[in-house]
Design a protein that fits this description.
Elements (H helix, E strand, L loop, with lengths): L1 H16 L23 H18 L4 E5 L5 H8 L3 E6 L2 H14 L3 E5 L2 H6 L8 E5 L2 H8 L1 H14 L2 E5 L26 E8 L8 E7 L2 E4 L2 E4 L2 E3 L14 E6 L2 E7 L6 H15 L11 E6 L3 E7 L4 E2 H7 L5 H17 L3 E2 L7 E3 L5 E3 L5 E2 L11 H14 L20 H11 L8 H9 L8 H61 L1 H61 L1 H5 L1 H11 L1 H17 L2 H11 L3 H13 L23 H4 L4 H19 L1
Parallel strand pairs: 1-2, 1-4, 2-3, 4-5
Antiparallel strand pairs: 5-7, 6-7, 8-9, 10-11, 11-12, 12-14, 13-14, 15-17, 16-19, 17-18
Helix pairs in contact: 1-4, 6-7, 10-13, 12-13, 14-15, 17-18
Amino acid sequence: MNNNAARGEGAITTLVSALPEKYQPIFGHPELSDGSSRSCVDRLRIITDVVHRLQSQLGRPVRVLDLGCAQGFFSLSLAADGCTVVGADYLQQNVEVCRALAAESGVGATFVHGSIEDLVCELKAGQYDVVLGLSVFHHLVHMHGFSAVTDIIAHLAAVIPVGIYELALREEPVYWGPSQPERASDLLGSYAFVRFMGSQPTHLSGIDRPLYYASSRFWHLGGDFRLFDEYKEVSHAHAMGSHHGTRRYFFAKGVMLKRMSLEHPDLLLPNVQEYEREVAYLGGSEVLPGSPRLLQHSRDQEAVWLLRELLPGQLLSVMMARQTPYSSERVVDSLLDQLVALERSGRYHNDIRPWNVIVDDAGDASFIDYGAISDQSEDCVWPEHLLLAFLITVREIAMGQVREPYPTRRPLLDVNMLPMRYRSAFLTVLSKPADEWTFAALKAAVDQPAAAASHSWAVVAALNERALLKYEDALEAKQGRLTQVERELQESLDNAHRWFLKATEREQQVAQLSDQNQAQTHGTQRLAGRLERLGSSYSHMREELDSVRGELSGAHQSAHHWFLRATQLEGEMHALHRSRSWRWTRPLRFFSHLVQRPRYATRRVLLALMRRVMARPALARALNKVIMVFPGLHAKLRSVAVNHAVVDAAVPHVEVAGQVQSFAGTEDEASKLSIRGRAIHQMLVEEERQEGRQ
């Protein structure tokens, strides 16, 4: 067993030494981890925390897909922690190291070789719970572009609930830097919840890379990890894009998580101020009864986060839009009580609107948007005085209708439209000096109605007049902007008309030139067509030439291979023929041939004897004279000798019958032929004589 372990460690050492880059520590081998490009312990701690929290939610081991697993440090560490892990890498050497380490440690990790693009397109929902994409997607962005990679990540977001990504930055001084997006987090736009988890140093430069948690099902804020039901980009229907996409609201059972981005330069300060105000109010000691409990809050370099309880009920603006019945006086009474209590503590709500009011099942109302609570006694827009702004809100509540505040709030300051209690109360308070216009005074006037002063209506009329003037100013400003736009539009139209006239004149000139050059153009077109055909032919010939070159190259390589093989076999054959065993077994081979192929063996013996005889000219001549007595045998032997290059067929041998240039004067030689040979000879002689007469 120790020997097997030693062999396994030796194999791992060999595999690690063959790696083009030791990017991660080698799992279970600290002695081999020296010189690794990056430390992974900090990231592993963050990833493990996410995996443990997800496992608590799922109630089973987590299934992890590690894309670009390198030497498998994260995959093997998570598998050792109880996860089921599949690691993938495009480099075969990395996969071999990972498989060897998995076999050695016995953890539940599988490793596959392939590209991220091919693997992701085959993924189905329900296969994995977590995907790791640590410093791999910037290579894909460089190769395929931003849009293609966002499509890949969108598919991951659709089929795998949780993703943990480490993304490279455009500012890094490497060749792929300029191809990256301005904001790395834009690659994760398909996820509903994206949270910055920290920055991690790399070996390439001094610029740290951001690590993100991303999910469309589970939020993760500090110690709170839970499944959310829905999310919204805007808090209410009347937001009118005022936050420019920097807000996102997530809802789970009984709680709400709000994210406010810090990456929009114009809204950075407002978002931070609202966050700090809401935390100060909900986390303070003087929070009003019935306010939701602040559960968690956090701030990172990209956003601020606030998690709080969710008040039961419906938005008042939604109830108005749906024409849901409610008691307007009960709603106003509830709000007034809270505003009075808030005022006593020196704080004010600067944005009391129907979309910032929650009405519970009992009909009582509570304000929300706690980030609008400050120590400033003024409204966030117009009218600046809180009591007058509240008067407009009360009018909207009483009328059951709220319209878009565009270009500003409607000047609904006519108290005649209010319920009797509030009409009298507002008249009483507004008849006092402006520094006495408080919610406490309004509350007292509602609880103890008194006769309104005679000049109250004059005050209200003056307020209405000022409100109308203010509203007119807003409309005039809007109209001024529209007029400016109209002037710019008219100027653009005038310019367009002038350019149209110039273009018409230019077209006429072009038409004249076109008529003059029509013949040349026709010739040019013919020439262009010919050039195009020649180019096409050239391209076709070039393609055929490249194809032939490829085939010749393959044939050359194949021929070279077989030439080397033939040379090798020829050398081996010569060595075999020179060997002692070949010489000793020659008689055995001869007798074997004699038995199996007697004619072949006999011919070989005969040829060997002929070569030995031909090597002795005197003996050859003597034997030739003897054999010529038997012309048939002599011709047969002569044919065999010529066919096997024992004698040269081109050299004349007068001693041999049949080797003549003419059949005339060969009667003596013909006598030596057989009966059939003499008949053939006589026939040939007669034919030659007849040809001579002609």
